[in-house]
Design a protein that fits this description.
The structure holds two protein chains of two kinds.
Chain A: E1 4-7, E2 10-13, E3 18-25, E4 31-37, E5 44-50, E6 53-57, E7 64-70, E8 73-79, E9 87-94, E10 105-106, E11 110-114
Parallel strand pairs in A: 2-11
Antiparallel strand pairs in A: 1-3, 3-8, 4-5, 4-9, 5-6, 7-8, 9-10, 9-11
Chain B: E1 4-7, E2 10-14, E3 19-25, E4 32-38, E5 45-51, E6 56-59, E7 62-67, E8 72-77, E9 86-92, E10 99-100, E11 104-109
Parallel strand pairs in B: 2-11
Antiparallel strand pairs in B: 1-3, 3-8, 4-5, 4-9, 6-7, 7-8, 9-10, 9-11
The chains are: A mainly beta, B mainly beta.
């Protein structure tokens, strides 16, 4: 596997379900991100992890719970979601540091539908 | 915080013509400006970027220009081909995190 991978690619869940999205980066990067992409809206940054530490939480509802067990893996745990949470969830990674400009590499995304 | 505006939201051109997409940003501390191409069913892919110490950068048919004084930057695609059809996003990176434009859907008609 190369680049950034995400599983599953598609997910349909009811509002009472609990599910998790998984992201893995094979680029040796030290930072990982979750974005939400809704139709006709800019990409919304949800969470940032830098060296496994969460450094950004952009007022995301608590029904979204991120987990970063190591610098290569990132999870997004979902529970009691709402229909308006239906979107494409994108994971990205980058190498942060003094000589880096945060070139972010994206995975293919998980298309989430909440019924 | 940073605010990025992108225009137009849709753009249709004839194959072989040029396409230009423009973005403005608000945070003068922004120093990195990437452009992403997103094809159907895929995540955004970085196609070109420019840093604040450079005014223009070119890579084959793609070029990006940056005007720091006016706080705007543009993507230029020349000799467009049907495979250039996609959604293009600009972004601006200030000190904290990256902000994206809303995207431009480019259609290249054969």
């Amino acid at each position: 596997e190369t680049g950034v991978t995400q599983t599953p690619r598609h997910l349909v869940m009811g509002m009472t379900n609990k599910k998790s999205l998984k992201c893995e980066q094979h680029l040796g990067h030290n930072a990982m991100y979750w974005y939400k992409q809704s139709a006709k809206k800019p990409l919304e940054l949800m969470f940032v992890y830098n060296f496994k530490e969460q450094t950004e939480n952009n007022s995301v509802p608590s029904r979204f719970s991120p987990e970063c067990p190591n610098s290569s893996h990132l999870f997004l745990h979902l529970h009691t979601l709402q229909p308006e949470d239906s979107a494409l969830y994108l994971c990205a990674s980058s190498q942060l540091g003094r000589n880096h400009y945060n070139e972010q590499f994206f995975g293919p995304g998980t298309r989430l539908t909440v019924l | 915080g940073e605010n990025v505006e992108q225009h137009p939201s849709t753009l249709s051109v004839q194959e072989g013509d040029s396409a230009v997409i423009k973005c403005t940003y608000s945070d003068s501390a922004s120093n990195y400006f990437p452009w992403y191409k997103q094809e159907l069913g895929k995540g955004p892919q970085l196609i070109i970027d420019i840093r604040s110490n450079v005014g223009e950068k070119k890579d084959q048919r793609i070029a990006v220009t940056l005007n720091k004084t006016a706080k705007h930057f543009s993507l230029h695609i020349t000799e467009t081909q049907p495979e250039d059809s996609a959604v293009y996003f600009c972004a601006a990176f200030p000190a904290r995190d990256m902000r994206f434009g809303a995207g431009t859907r480019l259609t290249v008609k054969p």
